[in-house]
Amino acid sequence: MSFTELIGGGIGCTLVVLGAASIVAWTLRRRSSDRLMLFFGIWCCLYGARLLGQQTFVQTAVGGSPEVWKYFIAFITYTINIPTGLFFEGVLGLGWRQSIRRVWQAQAAYAIAAVAIDLGLRRPGAAMGPNNPIVLIGLIVALMNLWLFRERLSPLFKARVIGVGVVVAVLFVVNENLGRPIAPAINLEPLGIFVLVVCLGYSVVASVFRDEAELVAVQRELETARQIQLALLPRELPRVRGVDLAVRYLPMTAVGGDLYDFVALGPAQVGILVADVFGHGIPAALVASMVKLAFSTQAEHARDPARVLTAMNCVLCSQMERAFVTAIYAVIDSDGHRVTLANAGHPPLFVGRHNCVDESREHGSLLGFVSDAAYTNEHLDLEAGDSILLYTDGVPETRNSKDEFLDHERVKVWLGAPGGGDAATFADAMLSQLRAWRGHDLFDDDVTFVVARVT
Description:
CATH class of the largest domain: Alpha Beta
Mean pLDDT: 86
Largest sheet: 5 strands, antiparallel
Low-confidence stretches: none
CATH topology of the largest domain: Phosphatase 2c, domain 1
Distance between the termini: 90 Å
Oligomer: single chain
Radius of gyration: 34 Å
Number of domains: 2
Strand order of the largest sheet: 1-10-9-6-7
């Protein structure tokens, strides 16, 4: 085995392994934006396989007649230009006047015709004559479009090391397809291709490390945001005579747009706010913090839900744009045996008792939508043993495997079902039923609900 064959075999193996890994990675992700990985993988496998097939020691080890190996090398040579063209189209688009697409389509037509001619004449390489001009034309078209549409390139392909690899590869490919005017006794093309792949690999690895560093920074920021948002939520439930409280809060992401809060108004009175900001993630969490601030300034009027929501709406309309929020604020008075509430576009409040469920009817405008919106108080009577439920729309809009919404009626059935236990027991049972309906623990929206049981 000569040194040249050893180098050729090593480069061929490297390209086949790299190409297979790229194809496997694409198979696992299977997104249209990842097709570059597929085309690059196919090209690497074909080029590496052809390079291995050209080595005498590989032919001897695998077996087969020299003619079979000639067919193998010829057919790969005809077809390898197709994934190359598809790769360039993935990077640059269709090209000037669709020139990139037209070139690989012509290369595909040539490959089909060349394979048919070789098989028809029973002579491998019989149609090889036009191959070199076709390769050179494709290379010229690719370089022209690369210059014309260089602004379209992603930062990965703009790296200086990629430019070096492309220049080396182009020079060596041109040398081979022009009949080796330089170093006529040596095929330098595989070495140029290997340099390009190494440069591309270096750039990809560097990009991955940069992306990972940015991801770690984003995760740290998300964790900080999550801690800040959790600090906005009540650390403990208020103790109120005649009222047992429980809350369950499941943000869809690290931070969410749902908010709940309590205000103790006396030994037997408690105010409960449940709000839902349109959207998800950090933007919604920022608005939720504004809602919390607006609510915290209304302690003086906390016994009047309508006045509280009116004041919160004025604050949000004056301080933020396009920050729409649904909210419900209820004051439970266990001594007075009633709940007073006001609603700003939020799902209704439910009161469950004796196998039946009553619900609030008041439904005002969203917070942050109309600056002069007015809200009205509504009163519902309470009895010992009643269960009160306030929740965000993430509960009724939970979908099952059949894409069916849970809806308000099923929530009412859960609430009206006979059962004992305290508020925490009921909240756990409701959460279990919600997860059973969903089929897993990942929800499409933030899920928040507050349960209050009148004792």
